[in-house]
TrEMBL record:
Keyword annotations: Hydrolase
All copies of domain Alpha/beta hydrolase fold-3, residue ranges: 73-285
Pfam family, one: Abhydrolase_3
GO molecular function ontology, one term from the record: hydrolase activity
Protein's name in the database: Alpha/beta hydrolase
Record PANTHER family: AB HYDROLASE SUPERFAMILY PROTEIN C4A8.06C, ALPHA_BETA HYDROLASE FOLD-3 DOMAIN-CONTAINING PROTEIN-RELATED
Protein's organism: Gulosibacter chungangensis
Signal peptide: none
Length: 324
C-alpha cells in the first residue's frame, strides 16, 4: 500500500479509543447504528432460543430468498469477543443468506469482559455440539450440512470449536469458513512473527493496540492467551479438522497469522483453500454487497459450498489473490 493510499484510508478508520475503557460506548454506538436499519429488516429473520446447559442463547435465523442447497451456515460474529451481537450483524447475515442461498443461524454468544474466556467459546461449542448430535431437533436433515462460519473473533471461535470437538472425541463439522480470523496471541509489532502486523497495524480499520485490548478483555491472564482455544495457531495437533476455506484481507494486520493457520491445517493433511482478497481491510464482510471485495469473497465462498462433500485424493494447494 502506498503512503497516499494509507493516509486516505486512515481517514475512514475507526476513531482511536481505549477499548478497555470505552467498550460500552462502542457497543451503544453499534446498536444505535443498527437500529437505523431495523424497521426494514424485521421481516428478514426469525429469532429463537437455544438451551445449552442452564443457559439460554439467542439465535437469529435468516432464510434466503431463493434456497440453492441443503447447507446451514452456523455463524459466529466478530467484534473482538467484546462488541458485536446478532443485532449489529443483521444486515451482514441477511446478505450472507441471500448471496449463498443458504439459511444462516447467527449465535448471540456471551461477551467479555462481563463474561471472559471461556464463556463465549462455551456458548458456540455447546450450540455446535448440540446441532451435530441432534440435528433433527433444529430441522436439519443431515449434520454434514452444518458449516461453521465466523469473521475475525468469530473465525477464532469457529476454529477453536473445531479443535475442541476433535480433542474431546466428538464428531465434528465437515466444513468451516474462517474470515480473517484471529489465530495468534502476539500483535506487538516489535515481537510478532508476522509482517502484516508491522505493515498494517496502525491507522487502518483495526490496529495492534485494539487487538491487544480485545485480547486482554477476553483473556485477562496473559499466559492463557497462548492456549490453543484462544490462539489456534499454538495448537500442537492440527489433524482431523474440517475442510476449510480461509479468507484473508490484503490490508489487514491479521492477514499473515490467518494464512499461517491455513498452512498449518494443510500441512497436517486437511483439505484447505486459502484465498486472499487484495486491497481489502479487516471487516470487509460487512461492506455493501455490490463492492468488489464482497463479490470476490462470495464467489469463492459459493464455489467452496458447491464442492461435492467428500475428501479429495490430495489436499488442495492454497490459493491467494494478487500480491500474495
Amino acid at each position: 500500500m502506498n503512503p497516499l493510499m494509507k493516509a486516505a484510508l486512515g481517514l475512514f478508520a475507526a476513531p482511536r479509543i481505549d477499548m478497555r475503557e470505552d467498550y460500552g460506548k462502542v457497543r451503544r454506538a453499534q446498536r444505535w447504528f443498527a437500529s437505523l436499519w431495523r424497521p426494514g429488516l424485521r421481516n428478514s429473520y426469525r429469532q429463537t432460543t437455544a438451551t445449552v446447559g442452564d443457559r439460554k442463547i439467542r439465535v437469529r435465523i435468516f432464510q434466503p430468498i431463493e434456497r440453492r442447497g441443503d447447507d446451514i451456515l452456523l455463524f459466529f460474529h466478530g467484534g473482538g469477543w467484546v462488541t458485536g451481537d446478532i443485532e449489529t450483524y443483521t444486515t451482514t447475515c441477511r446478505a450472507m443468506a441471500e448471496l449463498t442461498g443458504c439459511p444462516v443461524a447467527s449465535v448471540n454468544y456471551r461477551l467479555a469482559p462481563e463474561h471472559p474466556y471461556p464463556a463465549g467459546l462455551e456458548d458456540c461449542y455447546g450450540i455446535t455440539k448440540q446441532l451435530l448430535e441432534e440435528p433433527q431437533r433444529a430441522g436439519i436433515s443431515d449434520a454434514r450440512n452444518i458449516v461453521l462460519v465466523g469473521d475475525s473473533a468469530g473465525g477464532n471461535l469457529a476454529a477453536a470449536v473445531s479443535l475442541r470437538l476433535r480433542d474431546e472425541g466428538h464428531v465434528g463439522v465437515t466444513r468451516q469458513i474462517l474470515l480473517y480470523p484471529v489465530t495468534h496471541w502476539d500483535h506487538d509489532p516489535t515481537t510478532s512473527p508476522f509482517d502484516s502486523v508491522r505493515e498494517y497495524g496502525e491507522h487502518l480499520r483495526l490496529t495492534n493496540a485494539e487487538v491487544q485490548a480485545y485480547m486482554d478483555l477476553y483473556v485477562p491472564d496473559a499466559q492463557a492467551q497462548r492456549e490453543p482455544y484462544v490462539s489456534p495457531l499454538m495448537a500442537k495437533d492440527f489433524s482431523d479438522q474440517p475442510r476449510t476455506l480461509l479468507i484473508s484481507a490484503g490490508w489487514d494486520l491479521l492477514r499473515d497469522e490467518g494464512e499461517a493457520y491455513g498452512k498449518a491445517l494443510q500441512d497436517a493433511g486437511n483439505e484447505v483453500q486459502v484465498h486472499r482478497v487484495p486491497e481489502a481491510l479487516h471487516g470487509f464482510i460487512q461492506l455493501p454487497r455490490f463492492t468488489r471485495q464482497m463479490r470476490d469473497a462470495y464467489e469463492v465462498i459459493n464455489a467452496f459450498l458447491d464442492e461435492p462433500e467428500h475428501r479429495h485424493d490430495a489436499a488442495k494447494q492454497p490459493e491467494a489473490g494478487p500480491g500474495a
